[in-house]
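Annotated sample (chain length 203).
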Amino acid sequence: MRFGTDNEHPFDTDNRAWRRLADVTSEHFDVITWTRDPDGRPVLLTLGDLRTGDMITLAVLDSLEIRDPYALLAVHTGGELAAHGPTSGAETARSLAPMLALDSTTLAVTKPVPLHDPATTALPATCWVDLPTTLAAALRPALDDARTAVLVLLDRTQGWLAAVGPFPTHAAADTWQPDDGPGRAADRLIVPLHPVTLQEAQP
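Output written by the structure step:
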């Protein structure tokens, strides 16, 4: 639920970081969530150590959601493909390109692509983006280390691709399968997803 009446400190209980925090803390702590009257917005979170009884209380100030997730695909001169993101929207993803170019002497091409949520196995047509077939033929996953990954479904013949993710591991990306459609026959490239800062992720 989004508490949008608080313009200075908006908060959404569907925020994925908040939900993951709830899952993780409930396994290791006694958790008390303090809410605000009359709307029930969470304002404080008390964590109690189960063994010692020690406690800490954290203020819940606000949340930030990426509602139009994109990644910037980066192709290097040898065809190595990596991703950077997620960001909020295509223009924000595109704005990362100059910084990447400054940090790399092998960067050849960048392209912002929508990042499909792996919770949904149906790939809409808007997920697919075109690229030159000569470039599609050369792509292969970069071997960079990254904590998360993106699955790139690549049709080398037609010259288009779709990006799915983020995934917590390469293994999780490898098990994901789309519904019937062009994604089923596409090549599967599991590429590293390099994180961006909060400032870089937002427009």
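Annotation: Residues 2-59 form one domain.
Annotation: Residues 16-28 form the longest helix (13 residues).
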